[in-house]
Amino acid sequence: MSENVSVENMKELISLSHKYGADPDYILAGGGNTSWKSEDIMVVKGSGAELGSITAEGFVFLDMDKLRVIRTTMYPRNREEREERALEDLMNSRLPGQNGRPSVESLLHAIIPDNYVVHTHPALVNGLTCSKNGKEMAIKLFSDNCIWIPLVDPGYILAKTVDDEMFKWTDSHDGKLPDYIFLANHGVFLWGNDSQTIDKKYRDLFSILKSVCSNTDAVKLDTEESVSDNFLKKTGHLAGSNGVALFTTGNEIRSVLESGESIINLQQSLSPDHIVYMGHTPLVYENLPEDQLLSSIEKDYRDFTKKWGKEPKSILILGKGFVSMGSSKKGAETARLLMLDAIRVIRITDTFGGPEFMSVEKVSFINTWEVEKYRAKLSENG
Ligand SMILES: [Zn+2]
After folding, report:
1. How many angstroms is it from 223 CA to the middle of ligand 1?
2. Which domains, from first to last, does the chain contain?
3. What spacing in Å lies between the alpha carbon of 377 and ligand 1's midpoint?
4. Is residue 47 classed as helix, strand or coil in its secondary structure?
5. How far away, in angstroms, is 112 Cα from ligand 1 center?
6. 205-249 pLDDT per residue, tens
7. Which of 88, 145, 348, 374 has the fewest beta carbons under 10 Å from its own?
8. Ligand 1 mean position to 130 CA, how many Å?
9. Cα 75 to ligand 1 centroid, rounded to whole Å
10. What is the pLDDT of residues 360-375, one digit of tens each?
11. Would residue 315 be called left, alpha or beta, if left means φ above 0 and alpha means ψ between -120 and 50 degrees?
12. CB half-sphere exposure, 311, CA atoms < 13 A
C-alpha cells in the first residue's frame, strides 16, 4: 500500500466497496467501482476485481497529475486510435510498482473533486436511465440537482462528456456540485467526503425512485417449469468442455416470455453490462420437445458464434423460462443474474415511459471494444 493513503481512508473505501458491492440491488458481477482521492493520488478499483469482496490489493494507485493531463489531451478523431491512446495514458498514470489494470471508468472518478466516489448500476436506477422519459423525470424528481449524460461511447468519450457537462453545471450553479450523475443506459455516480454522505445520497435516491414506481422488487423464481439434466448438460457443453447451462423460471418470467413485445425487448440491450455478461441478444425458441430444441440450439449456436465472433449466453424458451450459458459455472450464473436484472429493469421503466435500448451501433462498439473483451473474459474465470 502507498504511504499516500491513510489506513483509515483505505478502510473506509474498502468498507464502502463491500457495502454496495455485496448488495445485488446495487451491483451485479464485476460491475460498478469505487475510489478515494487526494490532490496527488487516486485509489481506484482495478478492472476484474469484485467490489463485494475486494481487498486493498484489488485497487490501483494512480497519479492525479497524470490523470489531469489526460483530461486536456487532444486525442485522434479515429475511434480505435483514440481509445487505444487514452487507455495507454491511463495505464501510464499508475504509480510506480502498480501492476493492476485501473477500471475503465477511472477517468470519470478523477473528474469528481470529492474524496470518495461510489459508482453502481442498480436495477432501480437503471429503470430510470434506460427509459424513454428518463432525462425529464430525473430533472423533475431530483429538482435539477443532477446531471444527465446521454448514451455515448464508453471509455474516453464518456469521461470527456461528463467532464464538459460537469463544468457547465457547476459554472451555472455558483461552483456548487450536483448530487448525482445519471448515465443513460448505464448507472449512477455519486460522491462525498465521507461514507455517511454517500449513504445518505443513496438512501434519498432509492426512496425517491421507489416513491414513484409500483413494483421495484427482484424477479421472483419458482420451479413450475423445468428442463431435463440431459438437456442442460448438452447445452452447457456447447460453451466448452467445462461449460455450464442453467434453467430459470418464475411467474413473471413466463408471462414476459408469452408477450411478443416483451420478447422483442429482451432481444435488445439495456446497458454495456447486459451485453458483456448475458450477450447482446439471446437465441429464441418456441416451447418444443427437448430433442427438437437441442438440435436447433446446436445449429444456431454455431451460426451465432460465426456471425458475431462470440458465443451466445442466453436462450429464451417462449412461455417456459430461459437458459443461461457460460464456459464456467460463474459465467452461466452471471448471465442468469443479468437476464433477471433486464426483466426487472424493463418492468421499472414502465413508470418512465417504457424502455429505451442502446442503438445497434453502440451495441456493436461494445461487442468489439477491447476493454469489454477483457472484462467478459475475467467474468468467466473462477
Ligand atoms: Zn459503470
Report:
1. 33
2. 7-212 (3.40.225.10), 229-380 (3.40.225.10)
3. 17
4. coil
5. 15
6. 999 999 999 999 999 999 999 999 999 999 999 999 999 999 999
7. 88
8. 13
9. 22
10. 999 988 888 766 667 7
11. beta
12. 21
